[in-house]
Design brief:
The chain is mainly α and 80 residues long. 74% of the residues lie in helices and 5% in strands. The longest helix is centred in the C-terminal third of the chain and has 40 residues.
Length: 80
């Protein structure tokens, strides 16, 4: 496992795949070649500064879905 920061761990394969995606993006969209260091700096930035927003959005969506499902369970309760 490769630790990008205290919250996000990636396997070497995942990290390498992400670095390749970043490099391909710059080549395709900006016609600019960036090296491994540039791609790694961007990946670290995304993991540190941007990933928490997406992670929290996913957590909030999961909480909302679970809340709806729990309400469904409460409706099944047999009152005595």
């Amino acid at each position: 496992m490769i630790i990008l920061n205290s919250r996000f761990c990636l396997s070497k394969e995942e990290k390498d795949s992400m670095l390749a995606e970043i490099k391909a993006f710059f080549q395709e969209k900006r016609d600019e070649e960036i090296g491994d260091l540039g791609a790694l700096l961007l990946l670290d930035f995304f993991a540190e500064r941007l990933a928490p927003f997406f992670f929290n959005r996913g957590i909030n969506a999961a909480k909302a879905m679970l809340s709806v499902k729990l309400d469904d369970l409460h409706e099944l309760e047999i009152l005595s």
